[in-house]
Design goal:
Largest sheet: 9 strands, mixed
CATH architecture of the largest domain: Alpha-Beta Complex
Number of domains: 2
Order of helices and strands: EEHEEHEHEEHEEEEHHEEHHH
Oligomer: single chain
Shape: globular
Number of helices: 9
Radius of gyration: 19 Å
Distance between the termini: 49 Å
CATH class of the largest domain: Alpha Beta
Structural class: alpha/beta
Number of strands: 13
Strand content: 15-25%
Helix content: 40-55%
Length: 296
């Protein structure tokens, strides 16, 4: 059997048993295995339990199944953080598949750089290129980086490929459950957690060799995702702006400029999908701002 690292892996799931099985297959085929896996299930218990029972029979790694009311991704990650039994927790999602060296890369980075408090990495498309299916949330950087202090948090990484020392999550109060998929904020729980961690003094290393593969989406789902992502960014920015954080205004300006530039470029190229996505995203961001300014 592969060597076991002193790392907990958390996977939230919501009525996607086939995707959950695919994610677990990738994880257990890794060159390094986790010390435990926590499945945080906000959907039908029996469907996920059938999948989990099959993997329990094949691997001696503790595979723990927690049922939770549908409260969103941030709530699932907070629950996993509270129940994890190991000092590092690695987060991925049920629509992702870890590469074989995913955990090995995380472990190597955390051990070789004692000052590393967290690790992020690349996200590549899961399936081969298929008509009508589009990659999303990709990260394809070739160079590593170390983030600390005040930076644009979406440059740090993505929540589906993220490992952190659990003590840091407790220090900053965990994920904001008003943000993220399944919450009124819709997204940006990872942007917010990165921002708060870095502001509190954590150092997060981007490691290109730490890779997960992300499921492609059809056009309709892609547009919904971009709306949600931009809504989340608006909510995140407004949340910090209303607390007097002037850097939030800069983040909003950068995000808005990028959205407008991308939209105009798509219109000029006559790419109707991404032009529509850009306009949809701008609306989503404005709705997110309104939501974020109402937060207390």
């Amino acid at each position: 059997m592969s060597r076991v690292a002193n790392i907990t892996v958390s996977i939230p799931t919501l009525d996607r048993p086939m995707a959950l099985a695919r994610c677990l297959e990738g994880l257990f085929e890794g060159t390094v295995l986790p010390a435990e896996v926590l499945i945080i299930n906000q959907g039908q218990y029996s469907a996920a339990e059938t999948v989990i029972r099959r993997f329990r029979s094949q691997y001696p790694i503790p595979l723990l199944h927690y049922s939770q009311l549908p409260r969103g991704l941030s709530a699932a990650r907070n629950l996993a953080s509270r129940h994890a039994n190991h000092p590092i927790i690695a987060f991925t999602d049920d629509d992702c598949v870890p590469a074989p060296d995913w955990l090995a890369s995380i472990e190597r980075t955390m051990l070789s750089a004692p000052a590393a408090d967290g690790v992020t990495g690349n996200i590549l498309p899961l399936e081969t290129d298929t008509a009508g299916e589009y990659p999303i949330s990709l990260r394809t950087q070739k160079q590593g980086a170390i983030f600390h202090g005040r930076v644009l948090p979406w440059q740090v990484g993505s929540g589906g490929n993220f490992a952190i020392k659990r003590t840091w999550l407790f220090r900053i109060g965990g994920y904001d459950e008003r943000l993220g998929a399944g919450s009124p904020g819709k997204a940006a729980e990872d942007t917010d957690i990165f921002y708060r961690l870095l502001q509190a003094g954590a150092a997060i290393h981007f490691q290109p060799e730490s890779v997960v593969y992300h499921e492609r989406q059809d056009a309709a789902r892609l547009l919904r995702s971009f709306w949600n992502y931009s809504h989340g960014i608006g909510a995140f920015v407004a949340k910090h702006a209303r607390k007097g954080d002037l850097y939030a205004a800069y983040m909003l300006a950068v995000w808005s400029f990028w959205l407008i530039w991308r939209t105009v470029s798509s219109i000029m190229r006559r790419n109707s999908l991404y032009a529509g996505e850009g306009l949809w995203s701008l609306r989503g961001c404005s709705h997110g701002l309104a939501y974020g300014f109402r937060l207390r």
